[in-house]
Amino acid sequence: MISTEWMSFNEHSNYILKSVYGIEDFDNNNIYLVAFEGEKPAATAAFTLFKDGIKIFNLAVLEEFRNQGIGDLILRLMIRRGFDMGFDSQYAFVPEKHLEYCKKLKFTETGESENNNILMVHHGDIIPECNKN
After folding, report:
1. Using CA atoms, how far apart are residues 123 and 8, in angstroms rounded to an integer?
2. Which phi-psi region, left, alpha or beta, contains residue 106 (left: φ > 0; alpha: ψ -120 to 50)?
3. d(CA 48, CA 59)
4. At 29, phi and psi to the nearest 5?
5. Residue 127 clears pLDDT 90, i.e. is over it
6. Helix runs in 1-133, H state only
7. In terms of Cα–Cα distance, which of 130, 12, 3, 6 is closest to 60?
8. Whole-angstrom Cα distance, residue 95 to residue 1?
9. Per-residue pLDDT tens for 17-56?
């Protein structure tokens, strides 16, 4: 069973980020969401305040948990958290291979980019259905 937990800097996010991207994130200003399969960490993402909303970043799913809809769940919960905090805009720097997926979730390109990732923005709340693809 999948469960999620909101937290500040934590060893679970760092384990996932190091396993997936070879990076660590020690910024206590970020808010993290970690998804667990039972007690095992499976996926994570972080957000921070950005422009007129939040920026979602470091979305990572451990390989053994991919293609199960966990990344989709994490992204949707991040969007909902930003909306619930009173922000209409949720931003994400998106790799080109995930542009079409994000467009299905109503993200639009802003025309900005950073490190070969396209800045996209989502306005409002998220649609409730989760996708496995």
Report:
1. 25
2. left
3. 13
4. -85, -10
5. no
6. 11-21, 70-84, 99-104
7. 12
8. 29
9. 999 999 887 777 899 999 999 999 999 999 999 999 999 9
